Structure formats: C-alpha cells, structure tokens
Amino acid sequence: MSRLHDISQPLRPGMPVWPGDTAFAREPSWVLGEHCPVNVSRLTLSTHTGSHADAPSHYAADGQPIDEVDLSRYIGPCVVLDMRHAVPTVRPEHLLPVLPKSVERVLLRTWARFPHDEWRSDFTTLAPESIDLLAERGARLIGVDAPSLDPEVDSALLAHHRVRHHGMAILEGLVLDAVPPGHYELVALPLKLAGADAAPVRAILRELEG
After folding, report:
1. Distance between CA 140 and CA 21 in Å, rounded?
2. Residue 52, annotated as binding a ligand
C-alpha cells in the first residue's frame, strides 16, 4: 500500500488564526454518560481555519463560492517543491531550476518549521509572475504552507487575482515539513459549505508507486 502523508493542520483550541479572524473552539453539546448515549460537539471556526481552500468569492465579488468550484482541481498528480530559500517572495527565478516542464498541481514548502503555536506575519508570499509561470506549465492548483499567497497587509491581492485569471485553485496553510520534494497524488477536497468564501480541507499526499 502506498504511504500517505497527512499535510493538514490539526484543528484545536489555541491554534493561530489570521489576526482578527474567528478563533477555533470545540465545546460539548451532549456528553456520553448515564443519561446520554453519545458525545456531540459544537464547533466555532472561520472558513479559513487551518488548511483550507479559498473560493474565488473570497476576493472577487462575482467569484464562485466554495460549493460551486471544480473539485477535479483538488485531486490528482502534484509536485512538492522546496522554496525555503525564496524569502520573502517566491519569484520565477526560484521556481525555474526545479519546476517540471509540465505540472497539474504545485505545492510549495516555504517554512523551515511550520509555526503551529504562534502567528507569524513574516510568511513567504508569491509574486504574480510566479503564478503566470505555473499557469504556463499547466498548473490547475497552487498550494502553500503559508496562510496566504499575498502579504498580511495587502489590499491588492495580486497573486490571488492572477490565480483567478488563470482559473486555478488555491490551498493555504498546508503542513509540508515531513514531505520530501517530489511527485505525489493530492487529495484535498473542501467541505461543501453552501455560499461560503472558503472551506477547511483534509489534505493528503499519496506516494506514487515506483
């Protein structure tokens, strides 16, 4: 059986979230015991909690919500590239030495160690020109371990808009620390939240046979 890599953040109280966004909470609604046969929990969270898929409606007034996106973009062959040296922005010159001539999905590792316990504003971003290059090579999805493709303080969202221009999908907040660069199969389906601007994903990489 092929080895699986779970590249999702664990959703837990106290996990870092985007400044000002909704903190994650899980509280018991029902508790297994003498007078109740089951445990049931109530969740409070942002649509952008942990590892998540951005919908076009997140940054474009006329964009699709997450329940209407093409799911085929979130399943299939992908390549993981090590971009830890590309600080503070992944530019085409960082990608060209390692980017295959043809790709469908690209995941970029930028953290030396994923910051599970603190919010970090100094995450690595993507230049719009890098999005163009990935699209030229056939990419249908771009995934990053950073919380966003664009800087924390940025209202232009140039990388996001280049992604939409090329009809690509976005995954953010992946955990790639334990994944060697190389080719994998990606499965990272967003929850079907009607009308939502994003959704958490359980992102998995499967090692390819041979």
Report:
1. 28
2. yes
Quote the CA–CA distance of 199 and 66 in Å, as a whole number: 7
Could you tell me the domains of the chain? Answer: 47-207 (3.50.30.50)
Distances (CA, A) of 197 to 6, 177, 206: 24, 27, 27
Active site residue 85: no
Report the pLDDT value the prediction gives residue 1, as an integer from 0 to 100: 63
152 is in an annotated binding site: no
pTM over 0.90: yes
Give 94's DSSP letter: H
Count of CA atoms in the C-beta half-sphere (13 A) of 193:
20
Q: Which of 5, 35, 58, 116 is catalytic?
A: 58
Amino acid 210: pLDDT: 67
Average pLDDT over residues 29-58: 97
160 marked as binding residue: yes
In percent, how much of the chain has pLDDT > 70? 99
Tokens of 139: 């990419």
